[in-house]
Write a structure and sequence with these properties.
This protein is an all-alpha fold. The protein has helices spanning about 30-40, 45-55, 65-75, 80-90.
């Protein structure tokens, strides 16, 4: 996996780009669930999660994670390996990476 802090090429394969009608930044539980269901099928969920943690994304659904989940990771100041990030994405239901 490449260093996403300088390389955002993963974005072109992000499944969420195909869903213009879904608000990935809504706090409505229905929108959150729809967003997470899309993430669960995305091939770049790990890269997306890594990016969101590196950029300290405070809002929205990123890499099969909610803002609350990312906040815990960011506050812990623990540098997670790509393997650990993949485990988070898989635990959160991504079914295309296993």
């Amino acid at each position: 996996m490449s260093d996403n802090s300088t390389n955002d090429s993963w974005r072109k394969n992000a499944l969420c780009k195909k869903y213009k009608d879904i608000d990935f930044f809504s706090e409505d539980i229905f929108s959150i669930r729809k967003s997470l269901n899309i993430c669960k099928q995305c091939v770049v969920a790990v890269e997306c999660l890594k990016h969101s943690i590196e950029q300290k994304e405070a809002y929205g659904i990123w890499g099969c994670s909610t803002q609350r989940e990312r906040r815990r990771i960011i506050k812990s100041k623990t540098k997670l390996s790509d393997r650990e990030l993949k485990q988070i994405v898989l635990k959160n239901g991504n079914n295309v990476l296993s």
